Amino acid sequence: MIVLSNISKIFAHGKAPVTAVDKVNLTIEQGQIYGIIGYSGAGKSTLIRLLNGLEKPTSGSVTINGQDISAAKGEALRQARLKISMVFQHFNLLWSRTVSENIAFSMQIAGTPKAQIRERVAELIALVGLTGRENAYPSQLSGGQKQRVGIARALANNPDVLLCDEATSALDPQTTDQILDLLLDINRRFKLTIVLITHEMHVVRKICDRVAVMEDGKVVEEGEVLQVFTHPQQPITRQFVRQVSQYAEEEAFNPQLSSDLDGAVIKLTFTGSSTHQPVVGELTLRYGLPFNILHGKMTQTAHGVFGQLWVHVNASEEQLAKILADLRNSEINCEVIKHD
Ligand SMILES: Nc1ncnc2c1ncn2[C@@H]1O[C@H](COP(=O)(O)OP(=O)(O)OP(=O)(O)O)[C@@H](O)[C@H]1O
Ligand SMILES: [Mg+2]
Question: Which of 7, 37, 188, 319 is the most buried (most CB within 10 A)?
Fold first, then answer.
């Protein structure tokens, strides 16, 4: 478990000090994929550098599995940092070394015996899908392959925590998805805690369990990804949710299109397990009424699908009240958009 307690970082260069991280409190459970999203300058990289002890906080503390990283020094800090590894936006590979040599490097530094290194490198090459490219140099690899090397290298010493600073920001959308799938696979297989920094909500949607939204050094919103997607509280969070195009407001249902329909238009919001229920079908059977789907959008997160459906039904006042009660019993959020 990672606990950030009231952590701040003030850079005091020149006349005007910059508060890069401002009294942040966060708890990241073991085995989670935790997303930190924010625009440029929000303080994300500073926060991640506080997590791996590269920066000392101005105040507050960071503990990882009970150890206070912010107070650790010398050999204790070095040992702790071996268990916190990092994946970078621009890969930071050693250009004069092959794929295998890049992956082996940190183990050589740690004094791991040669035979053990060889075995571990082979294992990691297979894990990240680079079989056949062992002897290639970074300049001969695609961006996605370079990041696979970056990930393999980061896993070499069996870390407790993997920190990813914009790990997919230099990649095209398809390659981004492949790298995110790889991170998700690694997380699920080894229960490895991953903290991931990004400015793209797509990344959060696809693999994160929880997300914190940063603005001006502060965490302004935090929660389970599904919850944040369905009920964003802050304007900045709404902006990020809108980035994921299915949720663009302009794509929402236009009620004017239903103005000539008699009856009710109901907006249903599904999250998590409620998406597995054949709700519309069941209502049709139970009430003998045709439900007409007017508009819908669904998206997938690491915790299941969530989405919204706009349905039209020509029901009596009494039937409508029962329908709404049934929907709420199935934990489906419903809202009557229009009713004549
Ligand atoms: N070493 C430093 N010295 C002085 N100011 C710094 C230093 N590092 C970061 N800052 C300032 O702290 C603020 C937060 O920077 P940070 O790099 O953490 O943001 P970020 O969210 O990672 O941005 P980006 O998305 O552009 O990477 C910025 O105003 C930045 O100029
Ligand atoms: Mg940054």
Answer: 37
